[in-house]
């Protein structure tokens, strides 16, 4: 394996005998080295093999601007997530998560704290991913000495969820189908209430995000009803009668009986997005 490009003393692009490229990291792996020289494989700590050309090119660009230690800790988080979640993640997660963490540090250093309005839903619907997010905060604290708020656990969980969803959308047709279904549901709400939805509102953004994850959940049958959901749904059905009826239209459109849990949260989101307008 030979050195093709040097980012810094600890990160390079290496090329094997088959002309395949890899991003390789290791303490001092490029120290006093030049392009074309052999890689000291004893110093290799992490190897990034990104199959998608787009993800690979973006990751290389990211390495030009992001400190190596940020890339390293995100690698550890992603590998931990793969094992705990037992899930395949889209290669873009190496780019999106590293970029997010880097920007997060910049904002915190500037005194800017951004709260995640979806933290409640993430804890409820994606407890495994949220726990990984909490563990990621521990990794960052241990490896970088930086403290992050709980909101960042939810943000990291979102990246992991998106990486799973994007990986399950096998082609452009799948993504287009999901986008059309989301638009159809938004139209059901719009015509039921005879309103124009405010696409810049937080309620709208949360609703669309909920729908994206909603399709992922119903495909995998990840929800289980409890007595608590049944009780809350009865309360919501009485309090938000119009939103509940609108939810039933959405259920009819989908052509399948939804769990009480999904009915509950869809109704609440419909109520929020319609009330906002």
Automatic annotation (TrEMBL):
It holds the Pfam family PRD. This is Transcriptional antiterminator (BglG family). PROSITE patterns: PRD_2 (PS51372). InterPro entries: BglG_antiterminators, CAT_RNA-bd_dom, CAT_RNA-bd_dom_sf, PRD, PRD_sf. One of its GO terms (molecular function) is RNA binding. The keyword DNA-binding does not apply. It comes from the Bacteria. GO terms for biological process: regulation of DNA-templated transcription. Keywords: Repeat. SUPFAM superfamilies: PTS-regulatory domain, PRD, SacY-like RNA-binding domain. It comes from Clostridium acetobutylicum (strain ATCC 824 / DSM 792 / JCM 1419 / IAM 19013 / LMG 5710 / NBRC 13948 / NRRL B-527 / VKM B-1787 / 2291 / W). Residues 65-170, 173-277 form the PRD domain. Coiled coil: none annotated.
């Amino acid at each position: 394996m030979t050195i093709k490009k040097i980012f810094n003393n600890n990160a390079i692009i290496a090329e094997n005998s088959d002309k395949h490229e890899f991003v390789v990291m290791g303490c001092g792996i490029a120290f006093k080295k030049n392009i074309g020289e052999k890689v000291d494989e004893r110093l290799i700590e992490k190897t990034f093999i990104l199959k998608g050309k787009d993800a690979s090119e973006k990751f290389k660009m990211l390495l030009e601007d992001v400190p190596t230690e940020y890339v390293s800790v995100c690698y550890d988080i992603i590998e931990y997530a793969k094992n705990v979640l037992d899930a395949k993640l889209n290669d873009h997660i190496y780019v999106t998560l590293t970029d997010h963490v880097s920007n997060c540090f910049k904002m915190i250093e500037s005194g800017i704290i951004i709260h995640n309005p979806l933290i409640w839903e993430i804890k409820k619907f994606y407890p495994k991913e949220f726990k990984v997010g909490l563990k990621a905060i521990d990794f960052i604290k241990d490896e970088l000495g930086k403290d992050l708020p709980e909101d960042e656990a939810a943000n990291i969980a979102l990246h992991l969820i998106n990486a799973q969803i994007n990986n399950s959308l096998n082609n452009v047709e799948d993504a287009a189908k999901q986008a059309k279904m989301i638009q159809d549901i938004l139209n059901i709400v719009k015509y039921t209430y005879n309103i124009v939805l405010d696409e810049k509102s937080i309620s709208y953004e949360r609703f669309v995000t909920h729908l994206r994850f909603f399709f992922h959940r119903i495909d995998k049958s990840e929800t289980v009803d409890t007595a608590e959901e049944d009780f809350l749904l009865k309360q919501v059905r009485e309090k938000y009668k119009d939103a509940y009826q609108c939810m039933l239209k959405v259920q009819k459109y989908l052509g399948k009986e939804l769990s009480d849990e999904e009915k509950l949260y869809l109704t609440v989101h419909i109520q929020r997005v319609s009330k906002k307008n």
